[in-house]
Design goal:
SIR2/SIRT2 'Small Domain', 9 helices, Rossmann fold, binds ligand BJW, binds zinc ion, alpha/beta, 6-stranded parallel sheet
């Protein structure tokens, strides 16, 4: 870890990629862990436009359950360290796959949100009367599945599903953040693209690569420094050594 601590200088370009594991200690279920399954559905079976088109009530039930869980959760020590780094290091970038909003609630600056937000919604029909996406903090919807206030049709969660493209400007911000000196991948199973490819991209740009995860992932063997453990304990340990 000393090697990493030496590299975390005020001049260093530091990029962090986070996944669901960062919010695990807050009580937010991960996608692929044993507690991540909802009613025995894999995320790949629910997080698609096809699944929504087939059964919007089922998909909305999953999102409503997750909103309810997340609403009771607080940012943990990992979110707080990253929020502190986002103001302390001038060249710090946080890319998150998470949609829970806990990085935002911890006060992290300039977040690159790859997969949208569970607290946003969009008109499923794209009625044209509504904004492209809008914030909706409702935890218990009066009507399920919830309806578009502009046209009365269905609304969908404001997240990126499998098979959907990420916003071009978000991808270009992320690509720009790959030009860094230290790249840390934290709490992600590193199986969902394009995020899973970022570590190789950063390495190709000369970055020192670090992973924080209690389990091995496809990235573990290729990083310069694999740190095995929870983000909520390892990040505060690193922060205390700076
Ligand atoms: C801890 C911990 C603690 C526990 N501390 N750690 C190239 C190759 C192959 C496939 C593709 C490819 N390019 C695109 C694809 C297809 C697809 C894909 O990647 N499929 C793979 C499954 C193979 N990708 C897409 O479709 C993407 N779109 C795209 O690329 O568009 C262009 C395109 C379109 C069509 C065809 C081809 C290209 C979009 C992906 C969208 C993913 N969306 C989801 C749902 C978001 C909405 C929602 O939340 O409902 O995003 S899926 C889900 O997985 C969610 C997550 O953000 C994402 C990643 O999961 P994450 O965060 O890694 O969580 P887990 O649960 O997997 O892992 C948790 C980890 O934490 C574990 O490792 C634990 O050990 C660890 N952990 N406690 C630290 N305390
Ligand atoms: Zn509408």
């Amino acid at each position: 870890m000393e090697d990493l601590v030496r590299r975390l200088t005020p001049e260093a370009r530091i990029t962090v990629l986070t996944g669901a594991g960062v919010s695990a200690a807050s009580g937010v279920p991960t996608f692929r862990g044993k507690d991540g399954l909802w009613k025995n559905f894999r995320p790949e079976a629910l997080a698609t436009a096809e699944a929504f088109g087939r059964d919007p009530s089922l998909v909305w039930e999953w999102y409503a359950w997750r909103r309810f869980r997340i609403a009771t959760c607080e940012p943990n020590a990992a979110h707080l360290v990253l929020a502190d780094w986002s103001v302390r290091f001038p060249n710090f970038r946080l890319i998150t796959q998470n949609v829970d909003g806990l990085h935002e609630r911890a006060g992290t600056q300039n977040i690159i949100r790859l997969h949208g937000s569970i607290w946003e919604v969009a008109c499923w029909q794209g009625c044209g009367k509504s904004p492209k996406r809008w914030r909706d903090d409702t935890v218990t919807f009066k009507q399920m599945p919830p309806r578009c206030p502009y046209c009365g049709g269905l609304i969908r969660p404001g997240v990126v599903w499998f098979g959907e493209t990420l916003e071009t400007n978000i991808v270009s911000q992320a690509m720009n953040a790959m030009k860094c000196d230290v790249f840390m991948t934290i709490g992600t199973s590193a199986v969902v693209y394009p995020a899973a490819g970022f570590i190789e991209q950063a390495r190709a740009n000369g970055a020192y690569t670090v992973e924080i995860n209690p389990e091995a992932t496809p990235a573990t063997r290729s990083v310069d420094l694999p740190l095995s453990g929870g983000a909520e304990t390892i990040l505060p340990t690193i922060a205390a050594s700076l």
